[in-house]
Write a structure and sequence with these properties.
By secondary structure, the protein is an alpha/beta fold. It has six helices and 13 strands. It has a single domain, classed as Rossmann fold (3-Layer(aba) Sandwich).
């Protein structure tokens, strides 16, 4: 699993534990999602290309750097929305494109219901944002949409993954790195991650 990056950062472990707690209220839950997303994005973007930029400090001229690649954030609706602000705080110039997928409760397969991607991509790197990598259906479908769109460099950033979801991504998109806060035990008979944290969308928006 050379392209699987489970964070070892103490802050991620601390905040994830608070996120898992069933007594964490939606407001605090949303804050934690944003904070963990920012920490994971920091790790996931360590290899972004940069280019030199001439600038002047209050004391002297010097050479600095700026991002060379244009970044696109692709939250999977609706739970992925909560991760955007955290990542955006690090990369305010990033474009955000939404893809809507829901899981059919009978087949457990993703169904696309929203996609407003322009005809041609304006970004060279896309980060797929989704708190839970459970069956992997939504993530693999989103990756396929982005590849058809023409994006060459894609990464998945999530909070918790199940081995089943990781396996699905590796089988269908072995070129896409997975940056995650934790890898949990398994999926239950309803395809929820165990121990997990429940339904990330419901807990963020108070709809559970």
């Amino acid at each position: 699993m050379s392209n699987i990056y489970a964070s070892k950062h103490p802050l991620v472990a601390h905040k994830l534990s608070r996120l898992r707690d069933k007594n964490t209220e939606p407001k605090k839950f949303r804050e934690l999602v944003r904070e963990i997303a920012a920490l994971l994005a920091y790790e996931a973007t360590a290899d972004l290309a940069i280019m030199p930029r001439e600038l002047e400090t209050p004391l002297a001229k010097t050479t600095g750097y700026e991002l060379k690649e244009k970044i696109g954030l692709v939250p999977i609706l609706r739970a992925g929305l909560g991760m955007v602000e955290g990542v955006w705080s690090l990369m305010p110039s990033a474009e955000v494109w939404h893809i809507g997928l829901y899981r059919d409760e009978h087949t457990l397969k993703p169904v696309e219901y929203y996609n407003k991607l322009p005809t041609e991509p304006r970004v060279s790197v896309c980060l797929i944002l989704d708190p839970m990598l459970a069956t992997g259906g939504s993530a693999t479908a989103t990756a396929e949409i982005l590849k058809r769109w023409g994006v060459k460099k894609i990464k998945f950033v999530g909070l918790i993954a199940a081995p089943e979801g990781i396996r699905a991504m590796q089988e269908q998109h072995p070129d896409i790195p997975i940056h995650i806060a934790a890898i949990d035990s398994h999926l239950n008979d309803k395809a929820y991650i165990v121990p997990g944290l429940g339904d990330a969308g419901d807990r963020q928006f108070g709809t559970g």
